[in-house]
Amino acid sequence: MDIKGNEEINILVVDDEESIVEFIKMGLEAEGYRVYTAYDGEEAITVAMELRPHLIILDIMLPGRNGYEICRELKENIETSVIMLTAKGDIDDRVKGLNLGADDYMIKPFSFKELLARINARLRNNYICKSTKLNIGKFAIDDGAHEIYFENKILQLSPTEYNLLKYLIVNNGLVLSKNIILEKVWGCDFEGDENIVEVYVRYLRDKLCDKEHEIIKTVRGVGYKLVIN
């Protein structure tokens, strides 16, 4: 799905490690994106407020002001997506970033292929917010009407089923853990059993007639991945 030409998308990369910035910048420019850079917190704020990028790749550990502070300030002042980079794998750090408005996170080290997939997912999600309608493969999402179609037939979904399926569609091709699904669909303050994700995945498979799990795949020991052919 082509939202708009990549050359029309501005991405800001913020990290104090020059090698990481250059690695990301080189890869994104090869994909046609316009890439801007910043190496500390104050510079990130200045560039972001002037540029108003479509997406920001933001490291947590920065000189001056950390990524949490930057994320909160930018989310209060401009419309953008934020993918946070962290060397920390603790769930509390991820939850803190998400609570401050981050849209996604990646733990270093990471592959550029996965970063690119997550960037594309965030851009697709923004497109839904602005147009309320999106077609991806055999799926059609009408966010304004809160409806999802599969093979041109409307699916009868509960609110939670709708939110879960939309999240899987927008992130198609990415393996999503139960924890991140819980955080994004049920909310960071959800205190129930994480097996609720399995229950709702089963509901969706039934409604998609996905008996062989060819649409919503289980990645053992990791989570789920929606595959759109």
Automatic annotation (TrEMBL):
Ranges of residues in domain Response regulatory: 10-123
Keyword NADP found: no
Keyword Mitochondrion annotated: no
SMART domains in the record: REC, Trans_reg_C
Protein function: May play the central regulatory role in sporulation. It may be an element of the effector pathway responsible for the activation of sporulation genes in response to nutritional stress. Spo0A may act in concert with spo0H (a sigma factor) to control the expression of some genes that are critical to the sporulation process.
GO cellular component: cytosol; protein-DNA complex
Entry-annotated residues carrying 4-aspartylphosphate: D59
DNA-binding region range list: 131-228
Name assigned to this protein: Stage 0 sporulation protein A homolog
Alphabetically ordered keywords of this record: DNA-binding, Phosphoprotein, Transcription, Transcription regulation, Two-component regulatory system
Alphabetical list of SUPFAM superfamilies matching this protein: CheY-like
The organism of origin for this protein: Clostridium acidisoli DSM 12555
